[in-house]
Known about the structure:
Number of strands: 12
Structural class: alpha+beta
Strand order of the largest sheet: 2-9-7-4
Amino acid sequence: VEARGYTKLDPQHHAEISLPVSGSVKSIKIIEGDYVKKGQTLATIVSLELNEKLFEKSKLEEERDVAQAKITYLQKDYDRQLALSKENINAKKVLEKVASDLAVERAIVKSANNQISLLNSTLGILGNTSSPNIPIKASISGYVSEIACRMGATIQPGQSLFTIVDNSEMHLDLMVFEKDLPKIEIGQEVRFEITNQPGKMLNGKVYNIGK
């Protein structure tokens, strides 16, 4: 069976490196074609936005703690007012006011915790650093195929800065005619050549047949 196709990488072996914050490139430690290991520092950026996020997190934690302290006080007051209302000593509207204040403070705590959780997700990607100098690390091991930033350049959140490919896991996607499908099976040996190395035969095996 003769077939044509192309080389391809699975998504987990092809990585685009970016950051969730803006900043400017301070240093670049690699060049295109370099082999890098997972976790290796590729570059360093300076980010004032990181300081803003750290300050925002600190303010949210303070707001949450104040609201939590109010909840503790209001809960005791609510329990007291509830006991008094059962004896018809206290007006019902006083109890409702305390219950309303308690609900407001609980909503503040819930909102602050949600926002802090989102900030922690961002800061976790950056390694929970408190320094404005952020190292950009390789998410997989492989070869640097593209560098999309320059020294001193301003970068935006989510902007692709580096591309890394792990060619050790490359495979072939081959297209065969429908009439030849019955002749194809898992484990079958494949001999092939690639366009930039004509005449050099390589060997492989069929490991998957598309549905």
